[in-house]
Amino acid sequence: MINFAIKQGVDREACLLGTGIAEDDLQTGDGLITRAQEMRLIENLILALPDMPALGFQMGLQYSVATFGIWGFALRTSRTLRDATALALRYLPLSTAYCKMHTFVEGAYFGVSFDPDDIPRHLRQFLLERDLATGLNLFKELSLAGFDVEAVELKGDPLPYSTDLERISSVRLNFNQPRNALVVRREDADRPLPTYDAHLVQVLDHRCRQQLKQRQTGGVAGKVRQQLLGPLGLVASLDEVAGALAMSPRSLRRKLDLEGTSFRQLLEEERRQLAQQLLANSPMKLDELAFHLGYTDTASFTRAFRRWMNCSPGEYRKSVP
Hints:
This protein is α+β, with helices and mostly antiparallel strands. It has 3 domains: about 1-50, no CATH class; about 65-195, no CATH class; about 215-320, Arc Repressor Mutant, subunit A, CATH 1.10.10. It has helices at about 1-5, 10-15, 25-30, 35-50, 55-60, 70-75, 80-90, 120-145, 160-170, 185-190, 200-215, 220-230, 240-245, 250-260, 265-280, 285-290, 300-310, 315-320, and strands at about 100-105, 110-115, 150-155, 175, 180-185. It is globular and about 60 Å long.
């Protein structure tokens, strides 16, 4: 988002004002922001770019399947767009979406609705547009241009920047609809996707299910896992997790120690488990795998993996039956 804003002439300091995001985090790529920080950043962008039409929509078009880690990979390997959508909604807390979403079928059309009513009013339009644009991008990426999104449906009257929205999205906009939605033809929703992998989607579905289950684990360790597997991600620092849990880093360390674990141990457990599953069940390249595990480069991931398993990722992959 910051890079997008800089391209529009907004300086970095204006983006970060009041967010609590350290400059070093941006330089090293070692951290992700919490939802509270993201909302403050969005507020800054809206204030800095008041005249930019369809700001949220343009932001959402920056996201892709790879943005969403294990959740995104699971979508990419699904059999059809309908299956991918069902999986996406089943594990929606693992994504960055703010809107509530539901699928529907009407006549010859299949769609996904987006309900922004629970979003703070001053951010509602921005985040609705961002979620819609992200969904549009995911639909297009999963299809690999095999089919087209028929329409974007929007509640209410046409927006002042409706023309800009249609130009940016290359999709027809239908206003005064009963819901906000992305719509495709039913036959396209059930068309096999070119990236379908029956075995891998089972593995990734299982991993998504594990992540949701771990979110529900009790104790402070469970809350830490919830942050690592959700809004903060596997690149989060102890300070970031502590802040998200409204406690000091010292208190978090102490509470985890009382539960017989540590932040580093929890983080490495999640990274190791996911690394083993992806190495054993996917042809994913090491640089892509390292990125989605939260490492800044392949060398860092390889060193960590050797520490865990006493072999390199490549050697481990070859050893798996």
